[in-house]
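> example.struct
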């Protein structure tokens, strides 16, 4: 049996152990214990653990060992709200409202929404949570003329559902950009993760059933718990 086969067997054993028996943050056996149990080298064990770490199934703490990571939340390319994403995964979506008010669109938001910089928009800033755990900091801007009275209602649920129920606005498509960033201290504190850690910034302009731009959103996701899945095909 070669090292590649040994590495694969060990990886599969640990993957099943994590999925079926171990709770998040449970400690895995030490490298020495695994090497003795499976009759493999420490290097083979280390390779299996590194693969699990790349898959975000485990995380390592220097001097303490390897621990089971919370399952990562993945999102496909469908235009769905944060609340819909969480419900689809059996998680309870929540919001912590940071601020909400009416302001001038400004150059960037105005351009995205087809407004002049002086026109009014509703700006809603929230921390979105899954089962009470912060997942992202979300800022949304909407043309004030399209959503009169929005600030008079609750803003702790799905904004997309509110647009549909209260204003008959159905979002059908979006132009979206995803980029990597490093968290500043303030955003890291909101997400309850260390400062200067990795994050994903999603910039989105969503369009309604008449193909009018209705929402400009910038969301910063903690990279240790959130991932985007894309299906790609070759042309021809």
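> example.seq
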């Amino acid at each position: 049996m070669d090292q590649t086969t040994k590495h694969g067997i060990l990886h599969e054993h640990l993957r099943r152990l994590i999925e079926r028996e171990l709770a998040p943050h449970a400690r895995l056996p030490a490298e020495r214990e695994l090497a003795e149990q499976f009759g493999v080298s420490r290097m083979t064990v280390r390779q299996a653990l590194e693969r699990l770490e790349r898959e975000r199934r485990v995380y390592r703490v220097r001097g303490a060992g390897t621990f089971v990571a919370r399952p990562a939340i993945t999102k496909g390319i469908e235009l769905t709200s944060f609340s819909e994403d969480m419900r689809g995964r059996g998680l309870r979506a929540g919001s912590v409202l940071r601020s909400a008010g009416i302001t001038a669109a400004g150059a960037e938001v105005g351009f995205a929404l087809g407004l002049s910089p002086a026109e009014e928009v509703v700006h809603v800033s929230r921390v979105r949570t899954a089962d009470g755990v912060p997942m992202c900091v979300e800022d949304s801007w909407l043309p004030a003329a399209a959503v009169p009275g929005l600030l008079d209602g609750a803003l702790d649920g799905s904004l997309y559902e509110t647009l549909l129920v209260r204003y008959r606005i159905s979002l059908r498509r979006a132009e979206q950009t995803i980029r990597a960033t490093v968290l500043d201290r303030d955003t890291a504190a909101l997400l309850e993760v260390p400062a200067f850690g990795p994050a994903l910034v999603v910039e989105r302009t969503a369009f309604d059933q008449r193909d009018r731009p209705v929402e400009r959103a910038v969301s910063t996701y903690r990279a240790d718990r959130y991932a985007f899945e894309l299906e790609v095909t070759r042309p021809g």
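> remarks
The two ends are 41 Å apart (CA to CA).
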